[in-house]
Amino acid sequence: MTAPLQMRWLTTPAMVNPAMRKQLLACWRDVSNAGGAVGFPFPPVSAEQVLASLDAMVESLDDSANRLLLATINGELAGWLFLAGNSNELTAHWARVLRVQTTLGFRKQGVGRALMTEVARAATEDLTLEQLHLELRSGMGLEYFYQSCGWQEVGRWPTALRLPEGDRDEVLMTLPLSQDPETAASAR
After folding, report:
1. Which contiguous run of DSSP H or E holds residue 111?
2. Tens of pLDDT along 57-96?
3. Which runs of E-coded beta strand occur in 75-117?
4. b/e for 100-124, b at 16 or more Cβ within 10 A?
5. Mean pLDDT of 39-45
6. In sequence order, what are the residues at sequence separation of 6 or more whose Cβ sits closer than 8 angstroms to the Cβ of residue 19?
7. Closest alpha carbon to 143 in 124, 169, 178
8. CA nearest to 151, candidates 114, 117, 179
9. CATH numbers and ranges of domains, the chain
């Protein structure tokens, strides 16, 4: 990357301006149509199909629960992810990372790793969470990427995903964030 990567958290629907909304829509559609496992398992998808999910995600933004992390270069969207928190006191100590994606033109430039680093930092320092969770589709090599970012596979739901090319496992992963020595020791 020649220009610096900028990270920005959006926490209210009003923070998503029309230009950013258009970039998010294009990225989500393009990543889905390139085979990305980001919520639309049956490509090709149209902008109209993605729009309903995008609008619901943006409307759910809330500083105390749901946040959108944008990675931009010179104002152009390079990648993004969604962090979904929990309001229930039993699960308020963790959040889910969803829809991690890099704009096709910015792939293989470290954007995905930068997103994962920032979400871990914000979850620890800003939100004081103890864990992050994510689910992913097996058979795409994504486990190795997340493991290289410090995530651990904690389970699988065998053949949970029925896709045209065949059934796939849903892989469950976690990233322990707690600095508590007992929690850190049990994560090893």
Report:
1. helix 111-121
2. 999 999 888 999 999 999 999 999 999 999 899 999 999 9
3. 76-84, 94-102
4. bbbbeebeebbbbebbbebbbebbb
5. 91
6. none
7. 169
8. 117
9. 5-187 (3.40.630.30)
